[in-house]
Amino acid sequence: MHMHPAAEIGMPLDAVDTPALLVDLDALERNIQRMAKAVTQSSVTLRPHAKSHKCPVIALRQMAAGAIGVCCQKVGEAEAMVYGGVPNVLVSNQIVGTGKIARLVALAKQAWVAVCADHPANVQSLNEAAPAFGVRLPVLVESNVGMDRCGVEPGEPVVALAKQIAASPGLRFAGLQAYHGSAQHLREYSKREEAIGLAVAKISQSVELLSRHGLACEMITGAGTGTYRFEAASGVYTELQAGSYIFMDADYAKNLALDGNPTSDFEHSLFVWATVMSRPTKERAVLDAGHKALSIDAGLPWVAGMPDVEYIRAADEHGKLTLRDPNRALELGSKLRLIPGHCDPTVNLYDWFVGYRKDRVEAIWPIAARGASR
Asked: Most exposed among 92, 252, 277, 312, judged by the fewest C-beta atoms under 10 Å?
């Protein structure tokens, strides 16, 4: 059940009930334009990951700025995007199970939809399902380029699976999924660059072997917010799947740029709006935002604009703050913005984005794919 929005259009930000998920619209729009500009200066296209925002409204804004479509991880996310008007979706994951595959191929009758595979049995299942819906489904081979999660190994295993896809009448070999997620949060610039360099070498090996067997790679897709510049400059990747750049959570902000300073490509635009519900001492305050209001899997949130205030512990419904300045004016009812450590699972806790500009609510967007875990 979707909860009623915490805000109304036109109200001042201070009147928005808490906890609420805020989006600074000016910062969001600048982030979208910065990535669009970075892509136009390279030979790649942008296919941002919708698991970061789960919102067709934002996806369509990204496409209006030049993105060719989006990628998703689950069929439910893809359905939310297509039903919300997004015409081009890659499910950058394996879809296994009769029911899920039926939903996937049925969705491919309504929009351009592709999927990834890394096992012959999955390819066979996709091929058996596609003709029943009159679909020839584009399928990418996922290759393990260093993440050691999903994906066949580079080289001959890639070729073998690509041949099976190409020989399947209900499928079409569409290229390679080559995402190196482990590289995204390597803090040092040189280590991220090195990791993607190794990934590019593995992809190049696979592409060369595929070419020898008469199989062309239409798409070589991957990359993330932490490494997108390296994939864009590689001469191998054709698409970038960066997603978190639109929000720039606290964890990504810990990555270092070439000069050794924190990366500054994008701005923080996503915040959890929280209220001080207790001020038991001058050095301690408590917020109404804990585990149920934000994800802490990638670390605790930062308090925006208050370097002397630190969020030090989360409970189910409480967030504990420590104040280095005991004279800080932070009384009962005071509201502040928290920068989540990890944007994706934090977004998944909410039904609505509250978009604001200059401290006034301008937009309320449904998070249509919230909870789309199937």
From this structure: 312
Tell me if 50 is assigned to some domain: yes
One-letter identity of residue 24: D
Q: Are strands 319-323 and 335-339 parallel, antiparallel or unpaired?
A: unpaired
Per-residue pLDDT at 306: 95
Helices (H), the chain: 25-40, 56-64, 75-83, 98-107, 120-129, 156-166, 189-212, 228-232, 343-347
User: Is 112 found in the same domain as 88?
Assistant: yes
User: What was the pLDDT predicted at 326?
Assistant: 83
Pairwise CA distance, residues 207 & 217, whole Å = 7
Which residues span the domain enclosing 180? 42-248
Domain assignment of residue 155, yes or no: yes
Ramachandran angles phi, psi of 116, nearest 5°: -110, 155
Give the C-alpha separation, 270 to 196, whole Å.
Answer: 28
- 161 and 309 in a single domain? The answer is no
User: What is the reported pLDDT for 330?
Assistant: 92
Eight-state DSSP code of residue 52: G
Pairing verdict, β 352-357 and 360-366: antiparallel
CA dist 341 and 36 (Å) reads 24
8-state DSSP, 150: S
Residue closest to 330 by CA, chosen among 269, 294, 281: 281
My answer on whether 63 and 127 are in the same domain is: yes
Q: How many domains does the chain have?
A: 2
Q: Please report whether residue 372 resides in a domain.
A: no
> In the prediction, which pLDDT does 329 show?
86
| pTM recorded for the entire structure | 0.96
The CATH number of the domain where 294 resides is what? 2.40.37.20
Distance separating alpha carbons of residues 69 and 87, to the nearest angstrom: 7
Low-confidence ranges of the chain (pLDDT < 50): none
Residue 61 placed within a domain = yes
The reply to whether 125 and 51 lie within a common domain is yes
**Element housing 362 (H / E):** strand 360-366
Q: What Rg do the C-alpha atoms of the chain give, in angstroms?
A: 22
